[in-house]
Specification:
332 residues, 16% strand
Length: 332
């Protein structure tokens, strides 16, 4: 059996690592296409090197706009998929790369498996939500990382989450040192007005905060006065981020991936978004939506949580095992 995975962003490099290792160990024919959707040395190459992932194909789409990326990406994916003629195409998460790969594979009659299926924030104005819905619609197999995601679909396979599999293997030591970390990258937050509001809020928190600045956020910060308690940091590799999440006291983010893993580290996380996908993190007290209030600060600085491998195991099988075995069953 030949499997083709299509990725292109930092969270997808992380998601694919456990399945990539599982295929290597078991001599499974598995190749990776990187669309370079968010390519930069810090965001992409350093993480790929850090995770020791071998990319089979890197495409270089024309990027003058979101539409130009999608159109050129689909054309180049079609050529590679036709050449490889895989038994299954695996897509991950909710990016434009996932949308492109899902549409091209569907039109070519290649079965699609959607990893991280069924997540919903409930807001169709968010591009990632549309990408999720479309990929779920055309997928032959839907691998759900949480019980709620299965309820959202009313079908699918509960696999658990691949990143939890990776973190369980790393098994970092957890501390609660006297600082926070922050990441902000979503389109709705990357403008002067919104970033000024976020930074003004952070200034009221009586702790230092390490702000790992995404490349799309950096240019906006050049026009904003950054508070003294915020330390600007370049994007880091995955090992460094795991170390930071293991050691910090709290997290402020708009990242779904960081929100998802907060329970693994036993850390509270303020989410700078109106809607969230990983409902269980909020239900069990690891996450609150940021309202920029004093109550948010008081909650963030009160450490009363324990670690919880919330999205990991389904019985005795890892997510990678479940995904591969189900693909094999569907082919047979």
């Amino acid at each position: 059996m030949k499997i083709l995975s299509i990725i292109g962003t930092r969270p997808q490099y992380i998601k694919i690592k456990p399945f990539y290792d599982y295929c290597n160990i078991n001599n499974i024919d598995h190749k990776i296409i990187d669309t370079l959707q968010h390519y930069s040395k810090n965001v992409s190459k350093d993480i790929i090197d850090d995770l020791e992932i071998r990319i089979s194909y890197s495409i270089d789409p024309v990027v003058t706009s979101e539409i130009s990326f999608i159109c050129d990406c689909m054309k180049k994916l079609e050529k590679i998929i036709k050449k490889e003629n895989p038994d299954y195409v695996l897509v991950y998460g909710d990016t434009n790369s996932t949308f492109c790969a899902s549409l091209v594979s569907y039109k070519m009659g290649i079965p699609v498996a959607h990893i991280e299926a069924g997540l919903r924030c409930g807001n169709n104005k968010i591009p990632e939500e549309i990408n999720r819905i479309f990929s779920d619609t055309v997928s032959n197999l839907k691998f759900c990382p949480s019980r709620q995601s299965i309820k959202n679909l009313k079908e699918g396979v509960y696999s658990g989450d691949l990143e939890y599999e990776l973190l369980n293997k790393i098994n970092p030591k957890i501390n609660y040192l006297d600082y926070g970390i922050m990441t902000i990258h979503r389109q709705s937050n990357v403008n002067i007005g919104r970033l000024e509001k976020i930074l003004s809020f952070c200034e009221k928190i009586p702790r230092n905060i390490k702000f790992y600045v995404h490349h799309r956020t950096r240019p906006i910060l050049e026009n904003i006065q950054v508070p003294k308690n915020i330390v600007l940091k370049d994007p880091c590799n995955y090992s460094t981020m795991v170390s930071e999440m293991s050691s910090c006291a709290f997290i402020i983010t708009d990242s779904g991936g960081i929100q998802k893993t907060a329970p693994f580290f036993g850390k509270k996380s303020l989410i700078v978004r109106d809607k969230i996908e990983w409902k269980e993190t909020e239900k069990f007290g690891y996450v609150k939506k940021c309202t920029f209030s004093e109550k948010n600060i008081q909650w963030l600085l009160t450490n009363d949580l324990k670690r919880d491998k919330l999205f990991y195991m389904n019985g005795n099988k890892t997510p990678s095992e479940i995904i591969y075995n189900k693909i094999m069953d569907s082919i047979e």
